[in-house]
Design a protein that fits this description.
Layout (H helix, E strand, L loop, with lengths): L1 H18 L9 E18 L4 E6 L4 E5 L3 E4 L13 E6 L4 E5 L4 E7 L2 E8 L6 E6 L6 E5 L7 E5 L7 E2 L12 E2 L8 E4 L2 E5 L1 E2 L3 E5 L7 E4 L9 E8 L5 E7 L10 E4 L7 E2 L11 E4 L8 E5 L2 E5 L7 E4 L5 E6 L2 E15 L1
Antiparallel strand pairs: 1-2, 1-28, 2-3, 3-4, 5-6, 6-7, 7-8, 9-10, 10-11, 11-12, 13-16, 14-15, 15-17, 17-18, 19-20, 20-21, 21-22, 23-24, 24-25, 25-26, 27-28
């Protein structure tokens, strides 16, 4: 019996050690840049090492191939000469969805070369920032700045065929001057039926729902806040407990005080990391997949930074500015910026 117990605990110890990921000491990180004329690109959806979709300014929603094949897939003729500025993109595996920022906000479903307008909102305050689908690819969510005294949140439960805006009666109240940033399409993160949304401006807080957006809680953060350009610009989670936020003050991009924080309890409480240390202002943060939340990249107009200790310390990878980054595996990511796409490779 004693031998059986000993063997059992030896097996458990072996499994635990085997699952403990050891972060890499990556020596070579390369970024290959591709010029995209006349388009500012803040929203990307990476599909493979060689292909991605992006949504940008000038009504541009395109398919990019590593072999220099760049094709606009939005075929609409916009009424009244309105050319949408797209900063949100998402996919449910069957179609691509692109959402514009301003009045009127236009949400398109694109499939097999055909684009269909599935939602339109007209309001002087309308401004949509980001969009994601949940893991089931049936439920989806989009978030925008308040038009009343709460966040503007759109939900779909039919794979994007229709979208409905939540009433403020079901949402936490926002402070005057609290809103979101349409900086990288990453102020939303979904895992399973859970979603987190990060705000900024007057307050920098985390909205959280565990039931596809039906009910909500809101939590404070220590990220710099108080006026328009301050707050959380991006959020990511390695699992349902461990997450990271990044941002700062867009008007003071070299500042690095109170602009990075992590959580271990699913977003209820947050702790500042690398406070007063680089990286400074960033618009996007993403965990490297399959690294147990230990390897993380952050990008912004101040460059590209990397951490292999969950965000406690960082090193600069590149001083070239990018808005967004998305990984397709442990060694490959796509980036986007003003008139450019980048391909990052870890070696």
């Amino acid at each position: 019996m004693y031998r059986t117990i000993l063997l059992f605990f030896t097996f458990i110890l072996f499994i635990s050690c085997k699952e403990e990921y050891q972060p890499r000491n990556i020596e070579n990180i390369t970024i290959q840049e591709f010029k995209i004329d006349s388009v500012s690109i803040r929203a990307i959806y990476a599909t493979t090492k060689d292909k991605l979709m992006y949504a940008g300014s000038n009504g541009n929603v395109s398919y990019f191939d590593y072999n220099n094949n760049d094709t606009n897939i939005i075929s609409n003729t916009y009424k009244d000469s309105i050319i949408p500025n797209f900063r949100s993109i998402a996919s449910n595996g069957k179609a691509i969805f692109a959402l514009s920022i301003g009045n009127p906000a236009l949400l398109y479903r694109v499939s097999r070369g055909k684009s269909t307008l599935v939602y339109k909102e007209e309001h002087k305050k309308v401004f949509y920032d980001a969009m994601k689908f949940f893991d089931d690819n049936v439920h989806g969510i989009a978030v925008g700045d308040p038009t009343e005294n709460c966040a503007s949140i759109l939900l779909t439960s039919d794979a994007g065929a229709s979208w409905n805006k939540l009433s403020c009666e079901t949402l936490p109240k926002f402070n005057d001057g609290e809103a979101f940033f349409a900086a990288s399409n990453t102020n939303i993160k979904t895992i399973g039926s859970t979603v987190w949304i990060a705000s900024g401006g007057k307050k920098a807080r985390i909205l959280k729902s565990t039931d596809y957006g039906k009910t909500w809680n809101i939590y404070n953060s220590p990220i710099i806040q108080g006026n328009g350009p301050q707050g959380i610009y991006s959020i990511d989670f390695a699992d349902k407990n461990n997450g990271i936020v990044i941002g700062g003050d867009y008007s003071k991009p070299k500042a690095n005080i109170a602009n990075k924080a992590i959580t271990k309890d699913g977003g209820e409480t947050w702790t500042l990391v690398a406070d007063g240390q680089n990286p400074n202002y960033k618009s996007c943060v993403q965990y490297v997949p399959n690294t147990n939340g230990k390897e993380v990249f952050a990008v912004g107009k101040t460059g590209v930074s990397f951490s292999n200790d969950k965000g406690f310390t960082w090193r600069t990878v590149s001083k070239d500015g990018y808005y967004a980054i998305q990984f397709v595996d442990r060694n490959t990511a796509w980036l986007s910026g003003n008139e450019k796409i980048g391909k990052l490779v870890l070696q």
